[in-house]
Structures
1.
Amino acid sequence: MSFRERYDLVKAECEAICVAHGRDPHAVKVVAVSKTVGLPEIETAIAAGAHAFGENRPDMLASKAAALPDQEWHFIGNIQSRKIEEIVRFASLVHSLYQPHHVAKFDAAAASLGKVQNVLLEVNVSGEQSKSGLAPDQVALMLEVCEQYSHVRVCGLMTMAPQGNADVARDCFAQLALLAKQLKAGMDPAKAQYFNELSMGMSEDWREAVSQGATIVRIGRALFAEDFDEPHAQG
Ligand SMILES: *Cc1c(COP(=O)(O)O)cnc(C)c1O
């Protein structure tokens, strides 16, 4: 299959799952995670209709976004203080903010570039040691930290589910959706209006994520890898 065929299949199935769950068929943005490919593959993806790309290394984000500035670039990787300025320069949405001491740095970088940086807070719903992110009960406090800065806008939450079990993944996504709903209900309306995104679901579990309310899925191998093996069909 070509990128275009894989992308069209993902989009069509995504719409079908939305409809099956009573959601707007266009409620989900597919971010093509391009971290393992170069500019030629990204150009092929653009020709096939993909316009939102995800990168997990600041240097790769910078070089690819500088080469293809008309695309929407998402930063989904680990954040280091000294890379924040570079991330802010190129990212339309940062999915992976969770450290309170990074917020002031994002604010300062965004202010100096004359932008408001849209961010998601990464939550470690599953509690796996290997995963980064806020514990669910720490998110409210992190929101309070972010509220002190006018150049950082929290647009929602992000998580990564444990791999290998569709039921476990679905439960993890349901928990993130519930947490977001509870937090939004307690928010000042001026902040709540922007708090709408749930970034959840990757190649192996994006269907479960869409069924549980994902508004953004981050898909790498299932779009870019010719030999990607579907782990399980949708039940
Ligand atoms: C690599 C990556 C993805 C995409 O993973 P695939 O399994 O290739 O779809 C999604 N989110 C994050 C944070 C990643 O690092």
Note: The mean pLDDT is 96.
2.
Amino acid sequence: MRLVPTVAFALSFCASIPTAYAWGPAGHEIVATIAQIYLHPTVLPTLCTIIDFSSTNLSPLDSTCHIAPIATWADRYKSNMTWSAQLHFIGALDDHPPSSCAFPGKKGWAGTKRVNVLDGMKNVTALLQGWVKGETSDDAANEALKFLIHFFGDSHQPMHMTGRERGGNQVKVAFGGKETNLHAVWDDSLITKATSTIPQNYTLPLPYYPEIEQALRGSSYDPYIRRIIREGIFQKWADEIPGWLSCPDAVKPTSVDAQAALGSGGTTGIEILPDNDVLCPYHWAKPTHDLLCDGVWPKEVDEPPYKRTDKNPQPPLLELDTPAYSGMIGQRWLVEKQLAQGGLRLAGILNYIFAGQGQRGAFIEEC
Ligand SMILES: *[C@@H]1O[C@H](CO)[C@@H](O)[C@H](O)[C@H]1NC(C)=O
Ligand SMILES: *[C@@H]1O[C@H](CO)[C@@H](O)[C@H](O)[C@H]1NC(C)=O
Ligand SMILES: *[C@@H]1O[C@H](CO)[C@@H](O)[C@H](O)[C@H]1NC(C)=O
């Protein structure tokens, strides 16, 4: 690992404040909104020149300069961009959370070479760097940017980091008594629950932080974002954040595991492109994937009475809105941390691409 990197850019409003005060659609939009808060001031106008809002069916109101409205574009048009469906996730052949977590393990990754979310992030970043140099067309940059914003959301959703049962889509569970599936619990249910149980004080604008308020759009999740920033980014995780934005020096293909396997009989899966010292999706995704074996993929679904077997073809649904599951996740601030990491890392990359902000991009802190 590098030493804690120098932060290239800190929003200046801290300095000017004299005293100390201090993944469904919502998930993707929250990641994009947090990113927008941390953009270098010159970057947002550039992004909004690149994005062709007219192609996204947005109302004129939505298309004022915000990036959240296009954060789910890649999902909305998945059906007529079928080639892109595999770009939203990655999974290792050996992965079977929660009993064995492989990322990628001995066999390597499932799928087609270059067609996964981690390689997708590198592809679209390179295309956008090409746009800055005048080598990528405006149309290609428009598409690449919409994918980039989306991929930072997907790559921080743990269920997008495994191929087991289609990332949990095939695992039927209940949440609040309603049938759903494990993937959807992480896309939507946990966020919906969190946004509906925010202390009342966060419904009001946070004083002294106009950069936060300017990025909000009157959404139901605004109070949630204020809380994530105020209690999470400014407090709980303040010391860790420089580490979130850093990348290890070593540029290694996929993992040591996969290399070991090459020496002992070869992989059957694919390899991914190496991380670099600014964009390291594999390094960032690894701890997200680890969560699957740390309580996020409930082990009960593999045990009686919930395990589906020939003798038990219609098992009862495991309820996940319980103290042991949603309560545990809430207490650990797991969802909030994933959203915050996705947002800050996205801001860092956008600042790097479009403002040449040294290595790391922005972060703001409590003053
Ligand atoms: C997908 O279909 C919609 C209309 O159904 C269209 O407006 C849009 O341009 C299409 N997107 C692509 C990338 O072809
Ligand atoms: C790279 O991104 C471009 C722009 O969005 C896309 O058209 C292309 O299919 C991508 N290629 C891969 C291998 O992901
Ligand atoms: C809002 O209320 C919560 C709980 O009462 C408290 O912990 C938090 O510090 C308050 N936040 C602000 C910004 O006042």
Note: Residues 219 and 296 are 27 Å apart (CA to CA).
3.
Amino acid sequence: MVKVAIFLASLLTLALAKPHAARDLRLHERRERAPAGFASKGPAASDKVLRLRLALRQTDIKGLQDALYDVSTPSSANYGQHLSKEEVNAFVAPKAETVAAVNAWLAENGLTATKMSPAGDWIGIQTTVEKANELFDAQFSTFTHEESGVDSIRTLEYSIPESLKEHINLVHPTISFTRRPLGPPTVSTPLSPIVPQGNLTAAASCSTFTPACLQSLYGIPTTAATESTNSIAVAGFIEQYANAADLKSFLTADRSDMSSSTTFTLETLDGGSNPQTTSKAGVEADLDVQYTVGLATGVPTAFISVGDNYQDGDLEGFLDIVNYLLDKDTPNQVMTTSYGENESDMSVALADSLCNAYAQLGARGTSVLFASGDGGVSGSQSQSCTTFVPTFPSGCPFLTSVGATTGTSEKGATLSAGGFSNIFGTPDYQTSAKAAYLQTLGSTYSGKYNASGRGYPDVAAIGQSVGIVYEGRSTSVSGTSCASPIFASVIALLNDRLIAAGQSPLGFLNPFLYSDAGVAALNDITSGNNPGCSTTGFPAAAGWDPVTGLGTPNFANLLAAVGL
Ligand SMILES: *[C@@H]1O[C@H](CO)[C@@H](O)[C@H](O)[C@H]1NC(C)=O
Ligand SMILES: *[C@@H]1O[C@H](CO)[C@@H](O)[C@H](O)[C@H]1NC(C)=O
Ligand SMILES: *[C@@H]1O[C@H](CO)[C@@H](O)[C@H](O)[C@H]1NC(C)=O
């Protein structure tokens, strides 16, 4: 009897010991409090199901970054020798020992993981709040985004077993917050407000910018591209739908030299779609397809609609679309995205992970372009602030951030978001350009920005008063949302010429753009400023500046700079 009792008692003890919780958990990530605008409603229901994502340590991420620079730096012997899917995967796949260690730990806890990225560096698990609190020594709580009323479940800190520290980069969603909207308008907002201007007219002057104005301003060719293997991917999120009838009216009005039936192809993921009812047209999506199809004449354009069924753990499809492109044998040579968020809403590890995903796309030969944001030094949108607000993902050094200019005698647009990342350090290609600017700036704004951070934007294009057709009417829009597709179209037309000449597409642009040849091929914008946070913002200046970057495109010069 006694023996049995003891036996039972020890069984009980074992059951209560939470085998892996208390054993060797170590704090992995934490944030002091939820970002401004989120309120805690207390602990999440213990039986609520959580779909968590684990980013595993990649075999050799530094090797991938080195390979990226090797194929993207014009002076390198391997310039243009972009990597295959297998070559990229070899760098980013986790090591067998990582997979084994993580899977063993999950199995001990009754969990199995699903592969969530082509290389297996992201995996997914499904569990309950109760179990996750135990597994990660976390306190998953419900946070309400006050503006939209949308709830999300997050924890302000979590731990992982010490023995897995070298195998797991991060668990998500945990300490990163997403300003998800209820419906449109949204979180990762379309960056441009719409200002109705009147009915369809072929603009006679460039007070409203049209494709003809931009062709004239930047020397963009009107002749059609020839290469069918070349393409632009236009990223679409948050139920922003690209309307084919609006595109047709736009081409009829503003590109009478093109067939008005020229259109985009549709690709979808995460349950994305592209309904064509007039009232479903999205101003951002309309703008994005009109200034790619209507400017990169003859370049095949894919509108990639990312639905709400995110697989990336609340990253709103930002990682899903990268994984989608990485899974292709030949990813689109250009991707333009006019959505973004506050850098401070992201954890350092998550921002880093997503940034490394853009590095993979660059290594594969895709030029990744993002609008820098519309709030000047106050970030994505104008907001009250005391220190300048960096945007994400513009601070990531492995993509090209596009700011905005205004007028035919171009100046930096006041809305153009620009500044310095608090997460990413200065990449080598930018060191001297940035140092020269900071030297001129002196002590102005010292303490309001992080002088050691990567500066953005990298380049700029017109982003004020750009004419589009929306819901069958002509309107004009402003925002860096205009600038990113415009710059992307220029790159796509350069790629067309390169591919026609038997050469590689440009891929990751920045080492080229910041090279002497790149700098000389851009129109340096030296006036304008980007107010915000109760300041007049940074002044544009000769050379790189955090309003217009290195400047705007000059097609003929760029063609010469790439050797054509
Ligand atoms: C647009 O055209 C419609 C029909 O022709 C007309 O009623 C309306 O006043 C016009 N709007 C503007 C702003 O010109
Ligand atoms: C950035 O954060 C501010 C609050 O600090 C918020 O008002 C704004 O909507 C956020 N912007 C985006 C795009 O998430
Ligand atoms: C400034 O930026 C660096 C990256 O260059 C980062 O490590 C550091 O934490 C940032 N400082 C602040 C106060 O955000």
Note: Residues 36-37, 179, 187, 189, 341-342, 379-381, 383 surround 2-acetamido-2-deoxy-beta-D-glucopyranose (ligand 2) (CB under 6 Å).
4.
Amino acid sequence: MGERYACAHWGSYVARGEGEALRLEPVADDPTPSVIGEGWLGAVRDRGTRILRPAIRKGWLDKRDGKSRNADGFVEVGWDEALDMAASELSRVIKTHGNRAIFAGSYGWASAGRFHHAQSQLRRFLNTIGGYVSAVDTYSHATGEVLLPHITGMSNRVFQDEVTSWPLLAAHCQLLVCFGGISGRTAQVMSSGTSRHEVDSWLQVAHRNGTRIVNISPNRSDMAIEFGAEWIAPRPNTDTALMMGIAHALLTAGKVDRAFLDRYTVGWDRLEAYLLGRTDGQAKTPEWAAAITGLSPETIRALAADMAALRTTISLTWGIQRADHGEQPLWMGLALAAMLGQIGTPGGGFAFGYGSTTPVGRPGNHINWPSLAQGQNPVKDFIPVARISDLLLHPGDSFTYDGETRTYPEIRLVYWVGGNPFHHHQDLNRLSRAWTRPETVIAHDIWWTATARRADIVLPINSPLERPDIMMNRRDPALMFMEALMPTIGESRSDHDVFRDLSRRLGSFDAFTEGRDEDGWLSHLWDQATAVAAKENVTLPDFEAFRAAGRFDCPWTDKTRTQFGAFVEDPEAHPLATPSGRIEISSDWIDRLGLADCPGHPVWLEPAEWLGKAGVDGMLHLVSGQPLTRLHGQIDNGPRSRASKVREREPVYLHPDTARRYGIGDGDIVLISNARGRCLAGAVMTDNVRPDVAWLATGAWFDPQVIDGDMVEVHGNPNVLTLDKGTSGLSQANIAHTTLVRIERWTSELPALTVFSPPAFAGR
Ligand SMILES: Nc1nc2c(c(=O)[nH]1)N[C@H]1C(S)=C(S)[C@@H](COP(=O)(O)OP(=O)(O)OC[C@H]3O[C@@H](n4cnc5c(=O)[nH]c(N)nc54)[C@H](O)[C@@H]3O)O[C@H]1N2
Ligand SMILES: Nc1nc2c(c(=O)[nH]1)N[C@H]1C(S)=C(S)[C@@H](COP(=O)(O)OP(=O)(O)OC[C@H]3O[C@@H](n4cnc5c(=O)[nH]c(N)nc54)[C@H](O)[C@@H]3O)O[C@H]1N2
Ligand SMILES: [Mo]
């Protein structure tokens, strides 16, 4: 017998013991196990937050009222009744309004298994009954998804795969300039699971090899202290201006590699004219950049000189572009690397995403393992993922996206499985208003998340620890069988089982199941994987042997990559898939769209909110990055995340000077507010953040309460404060990191949390 494994986006574990004695031990070959895993079992076993039985919201049951979502209680019902209701509601909406009235973008991270992948199950099911309105791109890096194909000819996925491998970076890079740092905090995670975490180990190698690291971030801890990084902290959202100041310094010092620009890029002349102020009368000098960023011109000049003198990689975290005009730092970062002429060398050039998740830059062969086939969606309408509130509030309005003008359809039914919009979306008070619009909301979750609490038909799902599955990730060498390690909690079932039974009711059972049960599907996926592996000359064991062993390690090929390597070696033989075949420093295609908020070459545009704006005295810039102790909102209810809180509230990191200025002490509860919303958080002092920044992680479960007549989110969820606006008419990406707030000590009584207790249940 082999081991029993459990896999999650934050790592892989060996199960020890049974029943109450069950423990999860990180796999032995993981050099840096995640802290997130420490809270997993506790969260799964927490019956107070688990959804135990199907539940129907009373206001919907009684009078189909959408206004009272989250205001009235739930009626628990049996599975048959709940599924009958869901099926008849789906049929009613499809018959009366068509499938264009169903929104099932259903964005979110769900679980790491290949088969019980929530969105795949949902979409496969809905495609058998006529389809749904979908969502495109991610909250993670939507500007990359839209912009990179136009300027590099690579999809974001390919670009990410091609980022220069860590061993080459660690061996050759002399100066690593990291916009947004490179952080072990975010490198804990890898979508679809990982057998190891190695980003800190690679940074260690680079450090030992003498790579100089510059961390450009409002938060010093975005780079671990032991790597001796210099810390440069510009005002948030001013990175583009900083890059332009550096570019101008390179220009005046004669340090621009014009031969590289001539051979490998198009449109440099237009950017040059702009940098020199020929197009708008404003030269983008280091002095100009200094006034915007709050840095000194000397810092900017010194950085420019070092970048020109040393083998330099310009690295951007994904977070940089989660801001107003987020296309610009991405485009300008690439342009700056092109000016240095080091693109295509090992250790030089441009990278996007080191550390944002663990596999970016991981060497090795990628194997495209199978996933559950979703079928074809007959409905062609979609939204850019972060336009959810606009969709619900403004049916019939048009929006632009990637060169097209489209219309929001009218949504009657929302179906959410494996994601939590009341975690991930910006301006949650606005989303709450939008959320009253649909006639029906159906949600599946493991826990009573804020979204489940705002659904009409709530179906309880078992956790990955309660069902078998397979982890196979194209960027990880280990394939693992995820054993069911504990009995199902409450009456929960898998998403697949739910859709099986719904498809039976809606007449698409055969199309949905193809005659397979769960075991049938797992072995079918394994058969497909076996065929894929054979093409790579890897022989997989048969399914039963794999299941018994629990793990199969594909032979590790030490394949490394250099971003743009082949193109730079021979641009005629390996042109990029851009209109010009080269890196597009200016894009005629984007220029022709005539977008004021994303013109044809990189520009500095003031963000909607930032510290350089007139009249914002006394405000702080809110940065709401990823949480250390959980995956977004997932397992915030577990013991590890709860232990990180201050008087049960999410910690907000403040500089001691800021705290003094506002009369706030370490451990005080503070009210953070702006015109959109208010939340409470627990103050933690650190001189690792800029004095005009408040750093509050995402993911505290949304707990809005009416206090003295006003709505206050009492737990520390930054998304009551963030701005719900697209980056630009090109990508429409979210701008979570563009938010100004006020802060003050909370002197009233501290309200109790309600969100870690079950919602109210009512009789019929
Ligand atoms: N302010 C701010 N907001 C942000 C960000 C930010 O930086 N700042 N980051 C954004 C980013 S990059 C992202 S990716 C999003 C993440 O947003 P989400 O992915 O929506 O967040 P999660 O909390 O991971 O939500 C996943 C949900 O799926 C549930 N789940 C897990 N497994 C299963 C399953 O098998 N079946 C079902 N039915 N449910 C399951 C979990 O319980 C959880 O409620 O947040 C975005 N929001
Ligand atoms: N532990 C943990 N890890 C995670 C996740 C999680 O929920 N928990 N989520 C995963 C997901 S879905 C994603 S998409 C990735 C996201 O990975 P990232 O996008 O890299 O993570 P963030 O924390 O949003 O941003 C990184 C840092 O950018 C800095 N920053 C913000 N605004 C600016 C700015 O204007 N200028 C500069 N220079 N710096 C700025 C912030 O200080 C922040 O700490 O993380 C993944 N990893
Ligand atoms: Mo993300």
Note: The CA atoms of residues 244 and 284 lie 6 Å apart.
